[in-house]
Amino acid sequence: MSLLTNPVIALFLSVSLGYLIGRIKLGPIEIGGICGTLFVALLLGQLGVTMSADLKNTAFALFIFSLGFTAGPQFFANIRGGWRFGMFSVIEVVVALALTLGFALVFGFDPGTVAGIFAGSATESAVVGTASEAISHLNLPASQIEALQANVATAYSLTYLFGLVSIVVFATQIAPLLLRINLRHEAHKLAAELGQSGDEEGEGSFPTFVERAFHLDEHAGLDQGLSAGEFERIYNWAVTVSGLKRGDALVEVDISTPLQKGDVLFIRGRRNAVIGVAQHLGQEVPMPHGVGFRVSTREVILSFAQAFGTNLRELGEIAPPELRRGVFVTGIRRMGNAIPSLPRTVLQQGDVLTLYGPEDVVAEAAARLGTELPPQDKTDFVFMGAGIVVGLLIGHISIMVGQMDLTLGLGGGALVSGLVFGWINMRRPALGALPTAASNFAKDFGLAVFIAAVGLQAGPAAITQLKTYGLVLPVLGVVVSVGPALVSLLLGRWVMKLPAPILLGAIAGQHCSTPTVTALVEKAGNGTPVIGYTVTYAISNVILPLMGPVVVGLAMAMGAPAAE
Known about the structure:
The chain is of the alpha+beta class. Helices cover 60% and strands 12% of the residues. It has helices at residues 7-22, 33-44, 53-81, 83-107, 111-121, 126-136, 142-179, 183-193, 198-201, 228-234, 271-278, 312-318, 321-324, 359-369, 381-395, 409-427, 436-469, 472-494, 500-510, 514-524, 529-557; strands at 25-26, 29-30, 209-215, 239-246, 249-251, 264-270, 283-285, 295-302, 328-334, 337-339, 352-358, 370-372, 398-401, 404-407. The strands form 4 sheets. The chain has a 5-stranded antiparallel beta sheet. A 5-stranded antiparallel beta sheet has the order 10-9-11-8-12. Helix 2 runs antiparallel to helix 7 (142-179) and helix 4 packs parallel to helix 21 (529-557). The protein starts with 6 loop residues before the first helix and ends in a 7-residue tail after the last helix.
């Protein structure tokens, strides 16, 4: 057993076994590696493992800066134009905070327990860090501060699991019943409204983009002399005449090239669009040998101001004629999540668009739409280290509000710094490289190490708190988790009139609950819930961690008792 009290062994054992436990599924729900890590750490903490506070703070700074870095582009974009969805994040904070403080008055919870209930019910692990740090600045004896911080971890562990299960069940099962809808039917209906055809729903292993050849015989339904550009405009640039064969000659095509009876047209585009126009083009014929076209795929960070708030079809209309032809958006990533790239999908600043088409045209389109995402395989540690140091300096700023000394602290400061540095990286991708894989590792590993350190330190006090409150905390976790979701459901459906899949995705986002949106996508049968998820997730990921010091300060102002 002496080996288990070694801090390094206990730390990595907590992470390893925790993530193994986190793979356990309850229906569509996984408890997750972070929650599993905390459970194991609390258990090992009974052996009296001693952890360095510096290790815990370093891991949390790494996690929270990386979180802000990845959220920065979408957060600032949504501040300007996304507060319609941002209201759900506000509802999450206000309702969850009101319920938590109300229960604190009824049950006489200490500030640590109050913060833990808020963090677990909102399924936001970062609150554990910001609240624990705020507690460390209270004017209390060291023993009481340690007890309060232990109560944060224990209350979080007891409410997180029940909060997670309840929000998944509410969003996927209860909410559709309250709305009296079939979620899969509504999701497919919404996808059709966004421009998805029935052919696209079950593409499976079929290629998304194709090139076909058609003979313009006497049965073709095209006007004689119609230009290639006019033909493409009729079909909203969903297809492109990539070339043609006239007699024995291959002809390069531009927008002014006239189409004539007897031509063999080479049509390129999305498979469903090519199938749609085929009925007007006469008989399909084999593609001539050696006529294939060279294409490339590039990813670009959208910063073209005229494109913000437009959909993909409108983007095609405002693009110059030479860029409309042959360039297709094959994918859109927002906050690292793929959203449907359909004609009526609305674009936001910071979206990562995947462009597909002829190499020269794609390169020009990428330059006009924003900044091409460079291949990144190394982290710029100068940029990252400077960002964390700036965050720590910001965290030392404090403001007195009545009797409360409000400070962002290490966590809040690093989060704000991460947001700004992430926004800078979006505008200048060559500056401050933090590859997606690296940022994901920093977030996951930093949070896992922090949570393990908190659990190991809190272990001995966990049993005491569990005996004190018993099943009260899990029940409160359900109530505080479902309460904001229910308010958002009522507001979003009957006041804001949002489509059900987007509304339920927004509810998942306000809880920062990836398992919930994953379950929604599976139940919906397509990615439409992600459209509502990304905006609220970006905003909640910033607002909720900043609430840690606020929750502690309000609990103290209400006269909550300090831990014994």
